[in-house]
Amino acid sequence: MVDQGGARPEAPVRPLRVVHDVPYRAQWESAELVREIVDGRLDASADPRWGQSGAATPEEYAWWSWRLCGVACLRMALEHWWGVAPAAMALAGECMAAGGYVRDGDGLRGLIHAPFASYVRSRWGLAADARELTPAEVSAEVAGGRLVMVSVHPSIREPHGPEPVRRGGHLVLAVGATDTALLIHNPSGFPGESQAFARVPWRSFGQFYAGRGIVLGPPGASPAG
């Protein structure tokens, strides 16, 4: 139908709501204990499921567990597309060999995005692209069927708290998007609050987001942008 002015009416804009059915994995083996570990009430070495990580000792597990947010995101993506979730320490070792992690004395540098993306492509056959992304581009990638590992401040687990003094330092997996919020799987989120499909309003996302991430997709997937 044509209106009286001769112009076709615009098609109604459909509200955006895309949520991918991605299994959740914490960076600690006992997801229900994350709050106690993060708050310091429980040492990570006391996680009763530490052996499932593939670590040789509870101490090795405890040291690595604080650094496994990116590995947890990869485990979720692999389980989503391939139906497998390799042990965290096996993936961490492969990432280190590929340059995604670099030992620095008693510390660790990483996750380093570019070599990690290369590792994911060659080892697991997934599409992986490390780059800068605006929030709108993150939303478009998710709406296009991909998952995005986004660099955010760890306090995103409590989005209604004070604004962080810096952005980045932690990786979460974007698994859904709506017009008003990004839905994330947060490897260090709190059970029942900010772990699986945690809703982060777009209006507050920017205070945590470092503006970069790693776009993941099934074989042959290409970025929306």
Overall description:
With 225 residues, the protein is of the alpha+beta class. It has a single domain (17-217), classed as Cysteine proteinases (Cathepsin B, Chain A), CATH 3.90.70. The protein contains seven helices and nine strands, in the order E-H-H-H-H-E-E-H-E-H-E-E-E-E-H-E. The chain has helices at 34-38, 58-65, 69-82, 88-97, 113-124, 135-143, 202-205; strands at residues 17-19, 101-104, 107-110, 127-132, 147-152, 170-178, 181-185, 198-201, 209-217. The strands form two sheets. Strands 1, 4, 5, 6, 7, 8 and 9 form a seven-stranded antiparallel sheet that branches. The chain is globular and about 50 Å long. The relative contact order is 0.17.
Quote the average pLDDT.
91
> Compute the gyration radius: what is it?
19 Å
Low-confidence stretches: 1-13
CATH topology type: Cathepsin B, Chain A
How do the SSEs run, as a string of H and E?
EHHHHEEHEHEEEEHE
Helix content: 25-40%
Helix segment tally: 7
Shape: globular
The CATH class, by name, is Alpha Beta
- Beta-strand residue percentage: 15-25%
CATH hierarchy: architecture:
Alpha-Beta Complex
Number of domains: 1
Note the main attributes of this structure.
225 residues, 7-stranded antiparallel β-sheet, Cathepsin B, Chain A, alpha+beta
Structure, briefly:
The protein is α+β, with helices and mostly antiparallel strands and 225 residues long. The protein is 28% helix and 22% strand.
